[in-house]
Amino acid sequence: MGKHPEELLSLLSSSTSLVNIKLIDVLDSRSPLPTSLLVAPNLVRVATLAFGCLNQQAKLRPAMKEVCKEFLCRQTSLKIPLRMISLFQTCEA
């Protein structure tokens, strides 16, 4: 993000605000957005896993076995453009 993670954690505590915040808004603005159709889905996949790891309830966090499986599974294309994906969508996946 290029910011302290605490800023993001405060956003995650309110699920109503997650619908209005786009994933690209929390990415590090110093890095360019991916233009490759192969990279963008991987970025969403990593963000989804990362947000899953932030769950306060340990039982709801992905196990390393699930994380490995996610990285090894076949890549799919995004159904909507990267700019349209909200934080809520990455948290609910």
What does this protein structure show overall?
The protein is mainly α. The chain is 49% helix and 0% strand. It has six helices and no strands. The protein is globular and about 35 Å long. The chain starts with a helix and ends with a helix. The model has no long low-confidence stretch (mean pLDDT 78). InterPro entries: Ser_Thr_Kinases_DiverseReg. Its EC number is 2.7.11.1. Keywords: ATP-binding, Kinase, Nucleotide-binding, Serine/threonine-protein kinase, Transferase. This is non-specific serine/threonine protein kinase.
Quick tags:
93 residues, mainly alpha, single chain
Shape: globular
Determine the mean pLDDT: 78
What's the total number of strands?
A: 0
Q: How much helix is in the residues?
A: 40-55%
H/I helix tally: 6
The assigned structural class equals mainly alpha
Largest sheet: none
* Whole-angstrom Rg: 13 Å
Q: Beta-strand level of the residues, as a percent range?
A: under 5%
SSE string: HHHHHH
- Alpha-carbon distance between the two ends: 20 Å
Given as residue ranges, the uncertain stretches (5+ residues, pLDDT < 50) are none
